[in-house]
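Lab notebook page, bench 4
Experiment: in silico fold of construct C2
Operator: M.H.
Input chain length: 136 residues
Purpose: comparison with the prior construct
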Amino acid sequence: MPQHLGLISVVVRDYDEAIAFYVGKLGFALVEDRYQPAQDKRWVVVSPPGARECCLLLARATSDHQTSRVGDQTGGRVFLFLYTDDFWRDFNAYKANGVTFVREPRTENYGTVAVFLDVNGNQWDLVQPTVVHAPG
């Protein structure tokens, strides 16, 4: 049976602040935003343009423990890798939209890459791969 990742949960401070960043600054689609009354939370899913499988679930921190993880889900390492078919188009658009880059673009053997911060401080790689490796 084939499998794939469907959602990756990103712990955020605030739903609307996160939506404004992912949709407004990165150009992601708002796939779903539904209130869950039984749990008093929202189910908020966003997706990069053209994505066919994995999306992000924006999960608002609801405890001190969760709040302590906002913006540092991986202990200071790059958390997510956003692949693109046009690095300079997206890099320039993100810069124009106020996205903070903490490592400027460089060319590596695997592609062109720069590191940016999301609204909560998680590090992301923006990558245009030289060769796309299919899983499996």
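Observations: Residues 7-129 form a domain with the 2,3-Dihydroxybiphenyl 1,2-Dioxygenase; domain 1 fold (CATH 3.10.180.10). The mean pLDDT is 94.
Next step: discuss at group meeting.
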